[in-house]
Design goal:
Length: about 70
């Protein structure tokens, strides 16, 4: 499988807020968007939907759930 066929997320700017929260800007490739649509059953890719999906993936990775993890 070539890299352009792998689902990829590119993290851009991370903005820290005074309350301890942060905003993360990211880009996804077509393969990631396709995977998102297949996994969620959504009909279109939205910023809000992708944000929630990526947040859920990160939380699973932190907790080592469902085969996700952080190296």
């Amino acid at each position: 499988m070539k890299n352009d066929e792998l689902p990829l997320i590119k993290v851009g700017k991370v903005i820290e807020h005074d309350d301890g929260a942060c905003t993360v800007e990211f880009e996804t490739n077509d393969a990631f968007d396709k995977m998102y649509l297949e996994k969620t059953g959504k009909k279109r890719v939205t910023e809000k939907g992708l944000g929630k999906y990526i947040n859920d993936l990160l939380l699973k990775a932190i907790k080592n759930e469902d085969g996700y993890g952080i190296k």
